[in-house]
Fold this sequence. Notes:
The protein is α/β, with parallel strands linked by helices. Helix content is 46%, strand content 15%.
Amino acid sequence: MSAVQRIAVLGATGSIGLSTLDVIARHPERYQAFALSAFSRLAELEVLCLRYRPTFAVVADAGAAQRLQAALQVAGLSTRVLWGDAGLCEVAAHEQVDAVMAAIVGAAGLSSTLAAVEAGKKVLLANKEALVMSGDLFMQAVRKSGAVLLPIDSEHNAIFQCLPGDYARGLSAVGVRRILLTASGGPFRETALAELESVTPEQACAHPNWSMGRKISVDSASMMNKGLELIEACWLFDARPAQVEVVIHPQSVIHSMVDYVDGSVLAQLGNPDMRTPIAHALAWPQRIDSGVSALDLFAIARLDFQRPDEERFPCLRLARQVAEEGGTAPAMLNAANEVAVAAFLERRIRFPEIARIIDDVLNLEAASTVESLDAVLAADARARARACEWLNRHG
Ligand code: NDP
Ligand code: MG
């Protein structure tokens, strides 16, 4: 590894991407932004390129690449602009890259995340959807290539910090009884059920504790985010779904816990700011300043816990169901959710219809094992088509 680690930030214009660049900028002697990618926010990407002077930038298509390339040349930068999935995969696997921040949202991040894994990179995984879709293949690829997979999702990063270094021997071998996956409960934790029919995208995106991209904000409001995280935890830590208990903790100070057979429960606490898990994963096994202020327990004063209500949050039940089912069912749940959330954000459907669409899509038959990436992509496509049919029937 070079003295200065070269980082590919996939999804640089997003919430996680910008937090990553903030941590990188605090440690120029340790990290350098080697590649930055964007999809729709091209003006923002240009500003980031001028500031971080990456070797590569990646955009959605050839036209956008040409325009950005010209603008960067005028500014005197030698950044090479690539485009599309091929461009993302090229930088993710580039021989000069030390670590890849996988922070593209949704299935769109799958191939580049897998490319980083297959190239044996240090992979900082924010893109939980990639793991949910292709869990078994993904983890096999990690083992085969020797990639170092570090969770960025705050809960999984917390669990990773609370587990012993040799947890890969198996959770029961290291004395773990359960994983306690904390959830804030989102903005609608106490909203009257009847009112959920009329909540707006703005209300769904106004998370009480975290500032995040729009898709994950809606997922947090429906608690599908916790459902995806339950599946993510099963793959990352080789847990059975029954070993993962969801605990609503409205303050979002405890980011998750590990319950051991001797009665010890280890927790990781911190202010709700993604720069903590990002800095943890970037520097692991060392510790670096993240810019996050010290936790003020006296200001927080109390920590509360509740059991989740599955009537209020049917997405959580559906996710647990597909976690048990395995095979291509999680990929189908993820795809249906992506279509439904986009439709909700476009005001085509009401909030409770997100779960209804997913429930309908899960009537499709899923394969019980995942043989190949093509099988995952086919399941994803079938689920999207069925979700779109639902939208057409009801729109
Ligand atoms: P944002 O919506 O803020 O950012 C998403 C990023 O992905 C942007 O850079 C966006 O580009 C890019 N992108 C979107 N669609 C495509 C596409 N089709 N092809 C290529 N790139 C695309 O999301 P977040 O940063 O909030 O989340 C990113 C990932 O991290 C998600 O998987 C989320 O679940 C996970 N995560 C996020 C947390 C958070 O606090 N935000 C916490 C834990 C996990 P552009 O903006 O230019 O369109
Ligand atoms: Mg999370």
